[in-house]
């Protein structure tokens, strides 16, 4: 950072105490804030609830001028402005919900230097009129919230975000901080490139939520499983139950009410009065269980949610992590509980195939769903697998997930794994799961014959397993880091460094008995 700091002279810690009333910074907050205060750029990766807002709110108050916060979520923007105003901070927003007069008032406040923070929707910011205004104003920093929206691989892509790279050239010397809760390494690189943040320091905080116990079980009788779980461990607790469909939300809420629980449904099919009444009760009363579709949760910050239950499989690990992350914000023991079945997978695949979006997008989504299934099927610590997906590591098994507490039934996968890995290798690490399985099972499809892969040594050597069983093997190899999806997102599987010893047969590998399979099929030896 070559820019000389322009600050009020107040220390960040003092602002934290005086304005926000908090004791100390969490984890990386202090480092991030110092970087931005001194004029440097920053890319911040922090889990939901980790405390991203303070990372730009404190520098906004320490540096002179107005901080411009770019946020795509109008409701959150309004909440934050209201909360800041209550703390005595001069904050305002510009977005499409305001009329001309309101907008002009905010613009005047900006020009006369009365604002500490200005929240702005991206489409508004990139209008020439807004950019010109900002050039005449005195700015302290730009904060780009939900920065993963710039990524075309992600499901939140917004084309307006691409324009934000102009901030670098048009406002040299104004520090920029980009923040996101969802970004694997590929997305992180993409954010840095597309937002011209190549000089930015990266701050990646741990994704571990040690007080959350992760548990995933195959679905047998989902309703009974849910009732047993709540009765045994969380009777009287506040919790969230996620279902995929509105009908199931309604039915599950009724089921819980019948058992005497204070359960309330929440989904987009309810009128907005009912929705906000249920949300209010969840926030204010003790022991309310909200049964919801994923429409519920954005911006919900209730510290004492003791459990999050999934009756259906989320479509990605990002979604799973975000939804389960609503449990235990206060740091006390909490449970992330899920049951899943083959039907879930089929339904999600159908929704995916029927969705808008090009082949490339669908391929990436398919990989994400496979990673989610991979987590369900691992034999190792679930937390280690979950954290690895987000580029984070945990050296030891956590001791606080179901696979740590009750090691699952496994089979000796050594031979199958060698076949799978050498098939990836022999076909040049250019193909996806379906193709690889076709080769292993000796299918005579056109593509195989065209590429001459009926001649490779792994052709047809995998007939002892069904296609579904092979899928499970491949998912577990990906989940355990032996295979990875190609970084370009074409769906090809590639070998990682870790699989060398496996390929040579030097190490043993235990695979989980595929819980999605119907019972009664024998395969390998159970240990
Ligand atoms: P995120 O945007 O990362 O999801 P928020 O910025 O909304 O998270 O913060 C989550 C919660 O943690 C908020 O209630 C916030 O007030 C609180 N919080 C953040 N930083 C601190 C801190 N240093 N000390 C105490 N509470 C904090
Ligand atoms: Zn564990």
UniProtKB/TrEMBL annotation:
Keyword presence, Transport: no
Keyword DNA damage belongs to the record: yes
Residues of the signal peptide: none
Gene Ontology MF, one: 3'-5' DNA helicase activity
Entry keywords, A to Z: ATP-binding, DNA damage, DNA recombination, DNA repair, DNA-binding, Helicase, Hydrolase, Isomerase, Metal-binding, Nucleotide-binding, Zinc
Domain Helicase ATP-binding: 33-201
Reactions performed catalytically: Couples ATP hydrolysis with the unwinding of duplex DNA by translocating in the 3'-5' direction
Domain Helicase C-terminal, residue spans: 222-372
Enzyme Commission identifier(s): 5.6.2.4
BP term (GO), one: DNA replication
One GO cellular component, as annotated: replisome
Top-rank taxon: Bacteria
Cofactor(s) recorded in Swiss-Prot or TrEMBL: Mg(2+); Zn(2+)
Family label: Belongs to the helicase family. RecQ subfamily.
Name this polypeptide is given: DNA helicase RecQ
Gene from which the chain derives: recQ
């Amino acid at each position: 950072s070559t820019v000389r700091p322009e600050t009020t002279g107040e220390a960040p810690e003092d602002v934290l105490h005086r304005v926000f009333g908090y004791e100390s910074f969490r984890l990386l907050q202090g480092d991030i804030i110092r970087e931005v205060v001194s004029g440097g750029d920053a890319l911040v990766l922090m889990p939901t609830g980790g405390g991203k807002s303070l990372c730009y709110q404190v520098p906004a108050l320490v540096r002179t001028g107005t901080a411009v916060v770019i946020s795509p979520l109008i409701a959150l923007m309004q909440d934050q402005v209201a909360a800041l105003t209550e703390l005595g901070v001069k904050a305002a927003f510009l977005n499409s919900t305001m009329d001309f007069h309101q907008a002009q008032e905010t613009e005047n406040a900006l020009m006369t230097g009365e604002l500490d923070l200005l929240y702005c929707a991206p489409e508004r910011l990139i209008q020439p009129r807004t950019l010109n205004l900002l050039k005449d104003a005195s700015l302290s920093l730009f904060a780009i919230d939900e920065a993963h929206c710039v990524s075309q691989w992600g499901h939140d892509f917004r084309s307006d975000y691409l324009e934000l790279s102009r901030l670098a050239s048009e406002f040299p010397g104004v520090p920029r901080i980009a923040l996101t809760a969802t970004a694997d390494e590929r997305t992180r690189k993409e954010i840095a490139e597309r937002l011209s943040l190549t000089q930015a320091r990266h701050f990646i905080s741990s994704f571990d939520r040690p007080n959350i116990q992760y548990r995933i079980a195959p679905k047998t009788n989902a309703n009974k499983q849910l009732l047993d779980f709540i009765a045994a461990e969380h009777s009287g607790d506040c919790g969230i139950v996620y279902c995929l469909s509105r009908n199931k939300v309604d039915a599950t809420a009724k089921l819980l009410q019948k058992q005497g629980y204070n359960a309330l449904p929440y989904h987009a099919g309810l009128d907005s009065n009912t929705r906000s009444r249920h949300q209010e009760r969840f926030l204010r009363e003790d022991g309310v269980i909200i049964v919801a579709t994923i429409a519920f949760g954005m911006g919900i910050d209730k510290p004492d949610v003791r459990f999050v239950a999934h009756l259906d499989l989320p479509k990605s690990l990002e979604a799973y992590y975000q939804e389960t992350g609503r449990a235990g914000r206060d740091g006390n023991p909490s449970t992330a509980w899920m049951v899943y079945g083959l039907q879930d997978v089929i339904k999600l695949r159908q929704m995916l195939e029927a969705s808008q979006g090009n082949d490339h997008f669908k391929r990436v989504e398919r990989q994400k769903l496979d990673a989610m299934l991979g987590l369900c099927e691992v034999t190792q610590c679930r937390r280690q697998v979950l954290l690895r997906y987000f580029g984070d590591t945990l050296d030891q098994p956590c001791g606080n997930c179901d696979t740590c507490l009750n090691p699952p039934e496994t089979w000796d996968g050594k031979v199958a794994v060698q076949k799978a890995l050498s098939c990836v290798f022999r076909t040049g690490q250019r193909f996806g799961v379906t193709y690889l399985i076709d080769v292993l099972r000796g299918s005579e499809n056109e593509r195989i014959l065209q590429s001459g892969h009926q001649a490779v040594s792994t052709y047809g050597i995998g007939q002892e397993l069904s296609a579904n069983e092979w899928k499970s093997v491949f998912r577990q190899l990906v989940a355990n880091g032996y295979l990875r999806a190609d970084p370009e997102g074409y769906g090809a599987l590639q070998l990682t460094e870790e699989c060398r010893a496996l390929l040579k047969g030097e190490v043993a590998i235990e695979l989980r008995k595929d819980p999605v399979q119907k019972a009664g099929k024998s395969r390998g030896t159970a240990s």
